[in-house]
Design goal:
The protein is of the alpha/beta class. Among the domains are: 229 residues, Rossmann fold; 176 residues, Succinyl-CoA synthetase domains (Rossmann fold, 3-Layer(aba) Sandwich), CATH 3.40.50. It contains 24 helices and 30 strands. Strands 1, 2, 7, 8, 9, 10, 11 and 12 form an 8-stranded antiparallel β-sheet that branches. A 7-stranded mixed β-sheet has the order 15-16-14-13-17-18-19, with helices on both faces. A 6-stranded mixed β-sheet has the order 20-22-21-23-24-25, with helices on both faces. Helix 17 crosses helix 24. The longest helix has 15 residues. It is flat. The two termini are 57 Å apart.
């Protein structure tokens, strides 16, 4: 029967005819092409007119209403990639089809393949061939791919991804940004392709009311390779669909939890502190006492009346005031009983410090399941296990001695406890002031997604950082990132090369949708800033913190590099280029003014702007050079990257690093209408006392100081990335 008359699957209709095939993975089933095209037609997608038949003897009757040239295809088990086994023949006339079908049937039999049936369609005259595909990512759900189609698709890998469902803005960005986009404008005499029709096609596939959402989690892989785009429209020439016969239901946590008491508890209980030796529990008690807890801090201990001067009780319910937060630092096998005690006492949040759970194998995983089970059906939420917990200066939440006490507005959700400590220690030296930092470890209950979602609305958070290695609540995290876009900058540091895990794929789309590409799609869809090192992560957070209120001129002119000339300026330019930054040359009239002011003898006054900054230069040397550039009528640079050579202050000066700090103070006092990133190269030559001076300057002024050009360039790129998406109320 004609393809266009085939039954169509919707979310409320029975599944289509499917073919089991072990190559697709357990429980995965291939839908015949004509059934897929009937479904696409239901969603407004144009497909070729065609018909199906069961064997060569039925071919003549099936094709009598069609017009040549025709395409003949076989379908059934073993025919996922039809071209590879000779199951596609082009350019047939209606009279050729019976013989071609018989010949194809015989040829396939020699390969052990018996077709279930045949599809014959009217052949498209041709146009720009593209691939549109969808694969189900194990973390974030369905991602859609657009790229150059045809047989070289996978080899060339000229494609781009977005996360479904798409908005019209997403679809337009995907169409305009994939590597083959220039071909849409026409080439070698070919008429321009219909961009609007391609945008509509993408939305029919993966828009909010499209083909992909209608199938939901049943969709494992989908691919049209090729679709043909012409000046008049888009037609899907091929369609491949694999469904999951028993799709797993993802249980993403709801994002309606109030985490206020997590970050500012009224009372705290610590389990695992000892009266005879130093343990994690003892260190937590010491840290909390240092943070100012003189009351409503308790130790959970079976026999003692006090531990390290803190009142002790044998159960949480026996403690004299409400406990919102319990720290569990007992051996893993004892942790479930403490969770039960906390849940019975109505504790809001239980933080399990202890490791030895799922990260330790099957036995640990079973113990972790028991841990989660003890809190099920209660109002108690679990943080961890295997994590350090919460740091929030305004709520006196801490997990380390010597932690800073001044709150800021940078908040971080980290999967790693160890890195959390690094973030506080090193970040504080770089001038970062945290509002909240939480490590979540194995995240069996409280997850990244719901924490980030809450931070998007937290009035004390203006910059968000995330470190993650994997997440089980991808859709909640994606929603949170989309909500944050333009409101609060989000910097993401990913750990591990396979964050999404591995998925067995059998399509071109699946093989090209790597975790790296999926995360690029997340970045593109949400405005998230993705970095690859802890140094860049902290660099971006410090720069965004310093300049969160800075709004560049609407006609801002990129980046200006200024500092001592030579190879350093060249390296600075290279770093900016790697970060995607634009170094706009100074205008001719400004170069002339600079030369009249004494700059440029044997050096550049273009961009980079080379000035003799060093131990013998006046403190105002940079401000004097920048003033004519940034004055009214000058150039509206968004950012200035200043660089200094610390070694020069010891090789050619006698006052150590102090003259450099004096120069930076003049820059602050000048209140220049730009953001400033400062690179101090070779800082390792500074004696400890001078390092302290540099760190104190950064901490007290908030000026972003960097050790290398790449860190500074990444930070500037993060700020400009947010500039491009910032909403009016941000």
């Amino acid at each position: 029967m004609p393809t266009n008359a085939s039954p169509v699957l919707s979310s409320s209709e029975p599944a289509p005819e499917v073919t089991s095939d072990s190559t697709h993975g357990p429980g995965h089933q291939q839908v015949p092409e004509h059934e897929v095209k009937a479904m696409l037609l239901r969603h407004g997608v144009d497909v070729p007119t065609g018909a199906t038949f069961g064997c060569a003897g039925e071919a003549a009757a099936a094709v009598k209403t069609l017009q040549g040239p025709l395409v003949l295809k076989a379908w059934g088990p073993g025919l996922l990639h039809k071209s590879d086994v000779g199951a596609v023949v082009l350019g047939l006339d209606t009279t050729d089809v019976p013989a071609a079908a018989a010949e194809m049937e015989a040829a396939l039999a020699t390969k052990g393949i018996t077709p279930t049936g045949y599809l014959v369609e009217q052949q498209h005259p041709g146009g720009l061939e593209l691939i549109v595909g969808v694969v189900r990512d194990s973390t974030f759900g369905h991602v859609i791919l657009l790229g150059l189609g045809g047989i070289a698709t996978e080899m060339l890998n000229l494609s781009a991804l977005r996360v479904a469902p798409l908005t019209r803005e997403d679809a337009e960005a995907l169409v305009d940004g994939f590597p083959g986009a220039p071909l849409l404008r026409g080439a070698r005499g070919r008429a321009p392709a219909n961009r609007a029709a391609l945008v509509d096609f993408v939305l029919k596939i993966a828009g909010e009311d499209g083909f992909v959402p209608a199938l939901g989690d049943r969709l494992v892989e989908f691919e049209c390779n090729p679709i043909v785009v012409t000046s008049t429209g888009v037609q899907a020439l091929d369609a491949r669909l694999i469904l999951d016969s028993k799709p797993s239901v993802r249980s993403d946590p709801t994002a309606d939890q109030n985490f206020s008491r997590l970050f500012a508890p009224r009372g705290i209980a610590v389990a695992g502190a000892s009266t005879s030796r130093s343990t994690f529990g003892n260190r937590f008690l010491a840290a909390y006492r240092e943070a100012g807890w003189t009351e409503n801090l308790y130790a959970l201990h079976p026999t003692a009346e006090e531990v390290d001067g803190v009142p002790a009780f044998s159960s949480i319910s026996a403690m004299p005031s409400a406990v919102d937060y319990a720290v569990v630092a007992v051996p893993a096998r004892s942790a479930p009983d403490v969770v039960t005690d906390a849940a019975d006492a109505g504790v809001g949040f239980v933080h399990v410090v202890t490791g030895g759970f799922a990260e330790m194998g099957e036995a640990g995983a079973a113990l972790q399941d028991e841990l989660a089970h003890r809190a099920e059906g209660t109002a108690t939420r679990l943080l961890g296990p295997n994590c350090l917990g919460v740091f929030a200066p305004s709520g006196r939440q801490t997990f380390t001695l010597g932690a800073p006490t001044e709150p800021g507005f940078v908040s971080v959700v980290s999967q790693s406890g160890g890195l959390s400590g690094d973030m506080i220690t090193v970040g504080t030296q770089r001038g970062i002031k945290f509002s909240k930092l939480v490590s979540i470890g194995n995240a069996i209950d409280v997850t990244q997604g719901e924490l980030v979602d809450w931070l998007v609305d937290d009035p004390d958070t203006r910059v968000i950082g995330i470190y993650l290695e994997g997440t089980r609540d991808g859709s909640t995290l994606l929603r949170a990132l989309r909500r944050a876009m333009g409101r609060k900058p989000v910097v993401v540091l990913r750990g591990g090369s396979s964050v999404q895990g591995s998925v067995a794929v059998s399509s071109h789309t699946g093989s090209m949708a790597s975790s790296t590409k999926v995360w690029s799609a997340i970045t593109d869809s949400t405005g998230t800033i993705q970095v690859s090192s802890l140094e860049d992560f902290l660099s971006c957070l410090s720069y965004l913190q310093r300049y969160i209120n800075h709004r560049p001129a609407s006609a801002a002119d990129g980046v200006l590099v200024i500092g001592l000339g030579g190879g350093a300026s060249v390296l600075a330019t290279d770093a900016c280029d790697r970060a995607g930054l634009r170094l706009t040359p100074l205008r001719d009239d400004l170069r002339l003014r600079l030369r009249e002011n004494g700059y440029g003898a044997g050096t550049s006054v273009a961009n980079p702007l080379e000035v003799p900054v060093g131990p013998a230069s006046p403190p105002t040397v940079l401000v004097d050079a920048l003033s004519p550039v940034l004055a009214s009528g000058g150039q509206n640079y968004q950012d200035v990257l200043m660089h200094f050579n610390a070694a020069a202050y010891y090789n050619y000066g006698t006052a150590g690093i102090r003259p450099l700090i004096d120069t930076l103070h003049t820059v602050i006092d000048a209140e220049l209408p730009i953001r400033v990133a400062v690179v101090i190269r070779n800082a390792e030559v500074c004696p400890p006392g001078d390092i302290d001076i540099v760190n104190a300057f950064s901490a007290t002024t908030g000026v972003a100081l960097y050790r290398g050009f790449d860190e500074a360039a990444s930070a500037i790129a993060a700020a400009q990335h947010f500039d491009a998406r910032r909403t009016a109320e941000a």
